[in-house]
Amino acid sequence: MIDKTTLWIVIIGLGIGSFGLRFVFTGLVGDREMPAWLLRHLRYTAVAILPALVAPQVLAPAATGGEFDPARFTAAIVALAVGVITKNVLLAIISGAATLYGLLWLLG
Amino acid sequence: MAITTTKSAFRKGIADAAPFVLVIVPFSTLFGILATEAGLNVFETLAFSVVVIAGAAQFTALQLMQENAPTAIVLASALAVNLRMAMYSASLTPYIGAAPLWQRALAAYVTVDQSYVCAMAQYEKEPDMTIRERMSYFFGCVTPIIPLWYLFTLVGALLGTQIPQSWALDFALPITFLAMIAPMFRTPAHVVAALVASVTALAAAAVPYSLGLILAGLAGMIAGAQTELWSERRAQRAAL
């Protein structure tokens, strides 16, 4: 059983802390000029951190206890490939999901 | 479809973020279910989602509280999971830093993986958008995401039964993120950044408190920036 005081400290602390992390640059830097080297790195934030977030789940999904799963791996590759080729996000999601369910069904 | 007014920017944001409904609904429902199973009442569960709005950090905090970890550890770990939000904030700053403070504060509250990636993809594709159009677009992206995050946390808390694992909902997140970033691979530098970050994330999987993710992000950003510099220099030499 989670202690109620602990719970509310965590909810409020996490709320304030998360807001702080989200606001730290947009709020404090605002429209001040940022150095070119920093901007050059920030251009790659999205394409670096999201694949890093996803890669472990693609190769070692928690749902299969960290075991490599051919269905999930293939679904990820299909979603990525369709996205790169067609630039169509929805088509990529549908292709990935269809692959996942198709293979899960086929491989039992 | 090119954006011509702030209203069309808002509408385009809604349309572009709509696919994320497929992720938000199962994940917020799951949080609602797990939180009530951990002994939180409906109000506490909903408050958690409204105050924090961060799926992975919420799951982390819940897990650690159930294991009776010290409060400071719970907070530090969940915030470490959320550390990428500071990187998102930095990368959004060149695009929305000139907006009014209250709009930036509101945008910060609703900055999640989905709204961030949606907005960045659009800002990079159409660099000529005005600040007002960018903010309208951002709040458009958020519209199909955040209210559903609240609503389905509530549904999960009221439902309180497990979703069968055979639905494989764990994989809704990887698929939608991959689909969303795929169109962003416009230059070799973007591809190098993604590859280096992925390999680093796998190598650093054992680093505690999700800090491996931050290391992987930084490695990818450095790799992307270096590749960009290298291709610029090569293009200059070719021009001489």
Using only C-alpha atoms, the radius of gyration of chain A works out to 20 Å
Uncertain spans of chain B: none
Largest interface: A-B, 73 and 96 residues
Q: H/E series of chain A, N to C?
A: HHHHH
Total of DSSP H or I helical runs spanning 4+ residues of chain B: 13
Strand share of the residues of chain A?
under 5%
**SS content category of chain A:** mainly alpha
Q: Any idea how many domains of chain A?
A: 2
The tally of structural domains of chain B comes to 2
Radius of gyration of chain B, in angstroms, nearest whole number: 19 Å
Could you give the distance between the termini of chain B? 39 Å
How many strands, which pairing sense, and closed or not: the largest β-sheet of chain A? none
Mean pLDDT of chain A: 90
Approximately what portion of the residues of chain B adopt beta-strand conformation? under 5%
> Total number of helical segments of chain A?
5
Shape of chain A: flat
Oligomer: heterodimer
Could you spell the SSE succession of chain B in H and E letters?
HHHHHHHHHHHHH
What does the model show?
The complex is a heterodimer of chains A (108) and B (240). With 108 residues, chain A is mainly alpha-helical. Chain A has two domains: 1-32; 46-107, no CATH class. Chain A is 77% helix and 0% strand. Chain A contains five helices and no strands. In chain A, helix 4 runs antiparallel to helix 5 (89-107). The radius of gyration of chain A is 20 Å and the shape is flat. The mean pLDDT of chain A is 90. Chain B is an all-alpha fold and 240 residues long. Chain B folds into two domains: 6-172, no CATH class; 185-240. In chain B, 75% of the residues lie in helices and 0% in strands. Chain B has 13 helices and no strands. In chain B, helix 8 (113-125) packs antiparallel against helix 9 (131-142). The radius of gyration of chain B is 19 Å and the shape is globular. The chains are: A mainly alpha (108), B mainly alpha (240). Chains A and B meet through helix 1, helix 2, helix 3, helix 4 and helix 5 of A and helix 3, helix 4, helix 5, helix 6 and helix 7 of B.
